[in-house]
Design brief:
Number of helices: 14
Structural class: mainly alpha
Strand content: under 5%
Order of helices and strands: HHHHHHHHHHHHHH
Number of strands: 0
Shape: globular
Largest sheet: none
Distance between the termini: 79 Å
Length: 312
């Protein structure tokens, strides 16, 4: 009898530890093979309706399992969002180019080398490296620490798996083609040209441009992991498809100060990229598209201004 009771007691624990796996299960069957099937899979009822319904069903299953085990409310998404709020607050007030200048000027009062750096030609690049570096810390390292230490889950389950990426890469390629056409026409706008590239010396040399695009790309990987990996995965287990809704608002807000079409576009981009991550469980194709669009924006802006670098 004791042995039988012990084996029954083990079942709930197994279900509890498996709720993350249930929340991660892919919503798709085999990838569509023909062009007709591929475009049919982009129908809103399939892409959004089926994906969101499957996410809601997984969230209900997770909550039902917790209720059956008497585990009570799941506070993990709450603490994950508290950490996210702290990260966004710090990046808004400290992880900026102005934050770097304030830090550097304070150091320069007692260290002549800092003053020399402030007076040098590369101070703006250093300020952008500071901006990107703090986003890597806030968007990657802080969430990763929470995932491993508190949630005790695998970081790669938060959108970093490469499984099946080739099968759905065509969707992101199609999205990039549409967006880059829009970017081309927007590049004629003066406000766009004044904003990009965000590094003011990007047109000084090819080396400057490549160095800037490298740190810019790393920053975009960090951003995708934070909003489409960490944010959606931690919220999905309780909120289902509304994890996307929860993510869209702050994602739109970090675009404040940019040209208004880009800020508005962030709402649609957040919804589409969030849905694709829920469906395919990977952020990698989104990272490639995000970086490709950002680089094309910089290059087109430099081209419009006649500032494309010609020297190494």
């Amino acid at each position: 009898m004791a042995k039988s009771r012990k084996s029954k007691d083990k079942r709930p624990r197994k279900a509890a530890t498996g709720d993350a796996r249930a929340a991660s299960a892919s919503t798709t069957d085999d990838a569509p093979k023909t062009c007709k099937a591929r475009f049919a899979s982009l129908h809103p009822k399939r892409l959004f309706g089926e994906t969101w319904a499957a996410a809601d069903a997984r969230a209900l299953a997770v909550q039902k399992a917790r209720a059956e085990q008497g585990l009570g409310a799941d506070f993990r998404p709450f603490w994950a969002m508290v950490i996210a709020g702290c990260v966004l607050t710090f990046l808004r007030y400290g992880g900026t180019t102005d934050g770097f200048m304030a830090f550097a000027q304070a150091r320069a009062e007692s260290d002549a080398s800092w003053q020399a750096m402030l007076d040098g030609p590369d101070v703006h690049f250093y300020s952008k490296a500071w901006w990107a570096g703090w986003r890597v810390v806030g968007y990657i390292f802080v969430p990763a620490l929470f995932i491993r230490v508190v949630l005790k889950e695998r970081i790669r389950d938060y959108g970093l798996s490469l499984k099946g990426v080739r099968d759905h890469a065509w969707i992101y390629g199609l999205a990039f083609g549409v967006v880059v056409i829009a970017v081309f026409f927007v590049s004629f706008d003066a406000s766009f040209q004044n904003k990009y590239p965000m590094y003011e010396n990007a047109g000084r040399s090819v080396r400057d441009l490549l160095a800037w695009e490298l740190i810019y790309a790393v920053q975009f990987f960090a951003l995708e992991f934070f909003f489409r990996g960490y944010w959606i995965k931690t919220c999905e287990r309780v909120m289902g498809s509304h994890a996307i809704t929860c993510m869209i608002v702050p994602y739109c807000m970090i675009h404040f100060g940019k040209p208004w079409p880009e800020t508005v576009g962030a709402i649609a981009a957040g919804a589409v990229l969030g849905t694709l991550v829920l469906r395919y469980r990977s952020i990698w194709a989104g990272v490639v598209v995000h970086v490709s669009v950002a680089v094309s924006m910089d290059v087109l802006s430099l081209w419009q201004k006649g500032q494309l670098p010609t020297v190494w």
